[in-house]
Design brief:
Elements (H helix, E strand, L loop, with lengths): L5 E10 L5 E11 L5 E5 L6 H8 L5 E3 L4 E5 L1 E7 L14 H14 L4 H17 L2 E7 L4 H14 L2 E8 L15 H19 L6 E7 L7 H14 L2 E6 L3 H11 L3 H7 L7 E5 L5 H10 L2 E4 L1 H7 L6 H6 L3 E4 L11 H17 L19 H8 L1 H6 L15 E5 L16 H11 L5 E6 L2 E5 L3
Parallel strand pairs: 1-4, 6-7, 7-8, 8-9, 9-10, 10-11, 11-12, 12-13
Antiparallel strand pairs: 1-2, 2-3, 5-14, 14-15, 15-16
Helix pairs in contact: 3-4, 4-5, 5-6, 8-9, 12-13
The chain binds guanine and fe (iii) ion.
């Protein structure tokens, strides 16, 4: 009899395509010693009864109880880990003022490793408790604290992709918070990449270094060029903010007479492993360039409601086959939950479609065909994130990592309104997506290992 590290039995929801959910009712999931799903078996399959009989009494066999369901772990494509310390505050001012008044002073404190340790431990465990099994993080300019964040992800079992932030521009960044000069920024980035690649060897789930120019205004041309070269040399991920707000987008136009996408491309920063946050102002040429280079868009719907001065046309970009995932953008977005962000993604898309200018007749308001469904928002939070990172994550299927959340709809303090045992599973899925709270997330698994559990 073949040995597995874990076997699970229960009903799972996984994205089949952006618009379609796959319901795996009472399936068996066999997880190998690498934490990958080796096979899934449906109740209709001929060998199901024999397999169930053979494995169900083992200690590593987990059967979900009534009202419990599997979801894939969430992939958060944009988190500023240090900003967790200020989440929920200061969202009533424009991006430029928010950065200078609140965010840069806070991030400058991460030269203090004790403070960094405290905040980073807390943000990683909070994200895990919210079902986020993979996170793409911005740290700060500090090399040591950025390595510490990767170490904390490794220790807590989260698949963390971490960037030491580069801010080498001598005039556009405050004196108290920037890289000393371009050479130091690039040397620190290279040392950071090497350290995280070394650390990755001792993890099962993987941790990854990410080349991270904060956004074009923060960086010199030489800095951006050097970062593009490092990304190519070490074949790393790249992340940045792209065409986020009127101000940030306009700055790049003034400096390069181009949109962010083409400027970043000129510096070698649009690659298969690139994820660009926000992208509210990208046009069709920018989108085509993203498709050509394999660059993904990270949609940050809560943050965009505060800082973007626009709503990104997600449905249009999906139709153009741009890879898209979802991001919390802590703390531009206040919530560490991708459930909350998925809900806002749907709401924002409806507002874009329906419009708000009531001086116009109903049929002339808004942008037609902009709405996305909760299925599409779920896709962004799971499979879309996995595709954006080119990793086998975000789906509960064979050859994907066992990154999963067990949702319990019966928890007394957060009971979901599921009243009939035979309720349509599409309805159950929608109730979970709209109503689940952290209390409903009973267990979280990454790469076949349990990394979070709550009893009630
Ligand atoms: N642009 C540059 N830095 C930031 C940041 O920290 N958050 C957001 N939302 N936008 C940025
Ligand atoms: Fe951001």
């Amino acid at each position: 009899m073949k040995k597995y590290s874990q076997i699970f039995q229960g009903t799972a929801f996984s994205a089949k395509s952006p618009k379609e959910i796959q319901i795996l009712k009472d399936y068996l999931f066999f997880i190998n010693t690498n934490g990958m799903i080796e096979q899934i078996v449906a109740p209709e399959d001929a060998d199901y009864p024999t397999l169930l009989e053979a494995y169900q009494d083992q200690d590593n066999f987990h059967r979900l109880t009534e009202g419990q369901y599997f979801l894939p772990g969430f992939v958060d494509l944009h988190v500023h880990a240090p900003q967790w310390a200020q989440s929920g505050t200061a969202l009533d001012i424009p991006l430029y003022d928010w950065l200078n008044t609140y965010t840069f002073p806070l991030e400058s404190k991460f030269s203090d490793m004790k403070f960094a340790q405290e905040v980073y431990q807390d943000v990683v465990s909070t994200l895990l408790a919210n079902g986020t099994t993979t996170a793409l993080y911005f740290a700060t300019v500090h090399k040591e604290a950025s390595i510490l964040l990767a170490e904390i992800c490794a220790e807590q079992g989260q698949r963390g992709l971490v960037g030491k932030v580069v801010m080498d521009h001598p005039e556009n960044n405050p004196e108290y918070y920037r890289d000393r000069d371009t050479q130091t920024a690039l040397a620190d980035t290279e040392e950071f990449i090497i350290a995280v690649k070394e650390l990755a060897k001792s993890t099962k789930q993987g941790v990854y270094p990410v080349v991270t120019p904060r956004f074009i205004p923060s960086c010199t041309d030489e800095g951006l060029q050097g970062l593009g070269a490092l990304a190519a040399k070490y074949d790393t991920y790249v992340q940045s903010h792209c065409s986020e707000s009127d101000w940030a987008h306009g700055y790049v136009q003034d400096r390069f007479n181009k949109n962010d996408a083409f400027a970043l491309h000129d510096f070698g920063l649009l690659r298969e492993k690139s994820v660009m946050a926000h992208c509210n102002f990208i046009n069709d040429d920018d989108a085509d360039l993203f498709v050509k280079t394999g660059t993904a868009v990270c949609h940050c719907p809560i943050s965009n409601a505060y800082f973007a001065n626009s709503v990104i046309p997600i449905a249009h970009l999906h139709a153009k086959e741009v890879e898209i995932g979802l991001g919390s953008d802590i703390s531009g977005g206040f919530s560490p939950s991708l459930f909350d962000n998925a809900r806002q993604a749907v709401i924002s898309s409806r507002m874009l479609e329906d419009g708000v200018n009531t001086t116009l007749p109903a049929e002339e308001r808004g942008v037609p065909n902009s709405r996305i469904t909760i299925n599409e928002a779920f896709y962004l939070a799971t499979a879309g994130g996995g595709e954006s990172l080119s990793l086998p994550i975000g789906r509960l299927e064979a050859d994907y990592a066992w990154d999963a959340q067990i949702i319990d709809t019966t928890i007394t303090s957060a009971k979901l309104p599921i009243y009939q045992a035979d309720e349509d599973l599409h309805d159950v899925f929608q109730k979970i997506m709209y109503l689940a709270r952290p209390e409903n997330i009973r267990e979280v698994w990454v790469q076949g290992k349990k990394v979070h559990s709550r009893m009630s």
